[in-house]
Amino acid sequence: MSRISFELKDDLEASPSDGILTACLEGSAASISPAYNAWKAEHPCPIQQFDSLMRQAAGKLVTVFLDYDGTLTPIVSNPEAATMSESTRGVVRRLAELFPSAIVSGRSRLKVQSFVQLAELFYAGSHGMDITGPAPGATAGAATWEDQVAFQPAAAFQPVMATLCEELEEAVRPFPGAVVENNTFCLSVHFRNCDAHSFPPILGLVEAAVASRSDQLRMTRGRKVLEIRPKLEWDKGTALIHLLGCMELADAEQVFALYIGDDRTDEDAFKVLAERGLGCGILVSTHAKPTAASWSLHSPSDVVAFLEKLVTWGRSGANAWQSKRSCKGWHIAARPTAAAAMPGLPPRTPTAPTPVARTPTQG
Ligand SMILES: O=P(O)(O)OC[C@H]1O[C@H](O[C@H]2O[C@H](CO)[C@@H](O)[C@H](O)[C@H]2O)[C@H](O)[C@@H](O)[C@@H]1O
Questions:
Q1: Is any atom of ligand 1 closer than 6 Å to the C-beta of 106?
Q2: Is residue 201 pLDDT above 80, yes or no?
Q3: Which of 56-60, 115-119, 182-186, 356-360 has the lowest mean pLDDT?
Q4: What are the extents of the domains in the chain?
Q5: Closest ligand 1 atom to Cα of 76
Q6: 222 to each of 115, 211, 265, 310, 332, how far by Cα in Å?
Q7: Residue 221 alpha carbon to ligand 1 centre in Å
Q8: What residues act catalytically?
Q9: Could you report the predicted ipTM of this complex, rounded to two decimals?
């Protein structure tokens, strides 16, 4: 298969039924095929089989990890326009009142915080390389951005990313539609709005840029985007484990983590949950594809419907341990309990939390 046809096949997300609660609850013309039905049987809808999913959480504390683009917001052609709707913000706010909740995104942390605008959440920006959460002592339900403290395992890579961003902006100028996004500790080179024939040269440029710093950088791929990342054994999976450590919830006997995401980079998180028996992954996809997630939702609007159900379940007191803990609020621990035990991670630098920049929208 040629590179171009691979890219087109890889980008089947733009289903005409996206944004409508369809396939998961009723099935849609776009999705009903024997292959899709067989895949759905193996990756059922957690709205339809909610009780079965939540039985796995019995007696445990539910935690929720949410990818941003393609999960909380539909994919749009302009990355700057992928803002979150008020209704989605509302359900995420209600969710965070009940369960420790985090946003895990390839975006810069400041960007994703400015889209989400909820200071009470944990965040992992730059593919998990910029982790923040409410500081100890922050008041539950009244958190401010000043309360957020951070762990940044790739801080040393910010200068190389800034330099490379300028270089690549210049290099992709001849290709209309190509956009370079600086995500602080990583970069995204978008080709969604480019002519299909521009893809091979853009890929060549990015590969060459990464090859010239191959001791420092690596390239991964997302939805119509090439991502340049530090050569660190750090991804959304390790970030998730670190976040659970920050929440002092690293014990599989105590925690049931749900991770909802739509992209290849989310697979690292799905895998780590399955391997460690810490919870399960929910893939957002309009089509069948290989995944380490056990469940699937069709679209961001299905994600909202699922989160609403989770909130109703949490409010019903279905999990007694849950309600006892949630009144305390959730804070970043001064000494995370999980990450240090993980092989392949860089040394855990901060013994005390570090204050972080405020989000651009907070004045
Ligand atoms: O981890 P995520 O939160 O899913 O971030 C991954 C990338 O998401 C953004 O790009 C994607 O969404 C854009 C807006 O819908 C879309 O235009 C683009 O084609 C998608 O790849 C973000 O702009 C990237 O920086 C992230 O790496």
A1: yes
A2: yes
A3: 356-360
A4: 3-152+247-362, 156-230
A5: 15
A6: 20, 19, 7, 28, 29
A7: 11
A8: 67
A9: 0.99
